[in-house]
Every structure is written in C-alpha cells, then in structure tokens.
Amino acid sequence: AQKVTQAQTEISVVEKEDVTLDCVYETRDTTYYLFWYKQPPSGELVFLIRRNSFDEQNEISGRYSWNFQKSTSSFNFTITASQVVDSAVYFCALRYMDSNYQLIWGAGTKLIIKP
Amino acid sequence: GAGVSQTPSNKVTEKGKYVELRCDPISGHTALYWYRQSLGQGPEFLIYFQGTGAADDSGLPNDRFFAVRPEGSVSTLKIQRTERGDSAVYLCASSPQLAGASPNEQFFGPGTRLTVL
C-alpha cells in the first residue's frame, strides 16, 4: 500500500520557537519521491521541497530543514525560529514510480504560530 | 499572470445541476492535474492529463465526473447531476512534466470552492 501519515493534526507554538512536523510514509517501491507543500489561509498550495529515495542527505533552506530517514520511512520538516507568517497547513506527499505522477497526500498538519 | 488560474473562485449550485470548472495552466506545461480537497483533508487525486489525453482518470469518483483538455492547455472539469457530497475545493495543478522524466513540482491554482445546496 502507498500511504502518507501525518500524525499531528494541529501544532501551536509561540513565535521564535522551533517546531518539527512529522511525516511517515509507506511504499513498496524502491524509487519514489517525497514532497512537502505549504497551504496558507489563501488556499493555494506552495511547493517547498522534493526529495528522491536515493538521496538521504538532509537539506536546509534558510529556516527550513528536512530530515529524510529511509530506515524509519520518515521525512520530517523542521522550522527554526518560527514566525507568524509560517502559520499554515503543511502537507507531506509521496509519488511512486507507477503512479502516473499522481501524489499521495497526508492529511496535513495545521501549524499555528502565536505572536 | 504567470501562475495557474482557476475560474470561478466560488460556485454555489443546487443539487442535480450541472457545473463546469475551468483551469488555465502555466503556459507550456504539458501535465495537468485535478484534485479535490475536503475540509481538513489532503488533496485527493482525480485525473491527470499529459497533453490532450487523460493519462490517468482513476481518481474520478463516478461517471458524473468528466474532464477535457481539447487543445492541451485549458482544462474543464465537468460534474453532472451534482450531489451535496460533491461540495469541496477543486484544485488544479500543472507541471512541465514530460512522460518518462523524473517528476517536477506541481504548481497549484487557488482552487474553486464548490458548494452544492
């Protein structure tokens, strides 16, 4: 089965705190891609990162970082020094090779950053 | 604009009516996707076009749903005999995806919020 689980439905932190959003995936494929998207209140999904299954290097982009661990089938997302503008729903998604490029989405984690 | 556009932004209709939702992808993007998103959930795949043809329509829930992309650019999602359960945000995305190439990011439009009364 191909599945993405985001166990955290909602997280609330105070501005400037660090926060990690969890993503656990299931796939039998050896080649697959993982994505994170942000959906602000305006509703438009914004691409954040793509990672293929052969690249386990962690990635950092400004205040954002991603930790990909194949051993635990996880692709977690950390925001350092959170800001109010980070408030949004964050989705993790999986694309496997026979999927005709459709994305399998997690249910999303709503992140609330309080000033 | 340079992004994916969708019209209308909101559509309210009565049960049993027919609706059309339009998606204008980014110019030059060959791949186009339709998703449906219910409140508190992630997007649910409906259909994928590569050029003019529907390469994968396995996500369409039933035969009341149909989508076309006659010239390989604009796409229309058509819903016949709408039901209250069809109420959701319908998202369109496009990507410069070439068949067989590794997947690129999908660029999403703002969505059409469909409400069936």
List strands and helices in order, with pairings.
The complex is a heterodimer of chains A (115) and B (117).
Chain A: E1 3-5, E2 10-14, E3 19-21, E4 24-26, E5 32-39, E6 46-52, E7 59-61, E8 64-69, E9 74-79, E10 88-96, E11 104-105, E12 109-114
Parallel strand pairs in A: 2-12
Antiparallel strand pairs in A: 1-4, 3-9, 5-6, 5-10, 7-8, 8-9, 10-11, 10-12
Chain B: E1 5-7, E2 10-13, E3 19-24, E4 31-37, E5 44-50, E6 53-56, E7 65-68, E8 75-79, E9 88-95, E10 107-108, E11 112-116
Parallel strand pairs in B: 2-11
Antiparallel strand pairs in B: 1-3, 3-8, 4-5, 4-9, 5-6, 7-8, 9-10, 9-11
Can you walk me through this structure?
The complex is a heterodimer of chains A (115) and B (117). Chain A is mainly β. In chain A, 0% of the residues lie in helices and 53% in strands. Chain A is built from no helices and 12 strands. Chain A starts with a strand and ends with a strand. Chain B is mainly β. In chain B, a hairpin with a 6-residue loop joins β7 (65-68) and β8. At the A-B interface, β5, β6, β10 and β11 of A face β5, β9 and β10 of B.
Report a brief summary of the structure.
The complex is a heterodimer of chains A (115) and B (117). Chain A has 115 residues and is mainly beta.
Largest interface: A-B, 24 and 27 residues
Main beta sheet of chain B: 7 strands, mixed
Q: Tell me, what's the shape of chain B?
A: globular
**What share of the residues of chain A does DSSP label as strand, in percent?**
over 45%
Secondary structural class of chain B: mainly beta
**Total strand segments of chain B:** 11
Give the SSE string of chain A: EEEEEEEEEEEE
| Element-level helix/strand string of chain B | EEEEEEEEEEE
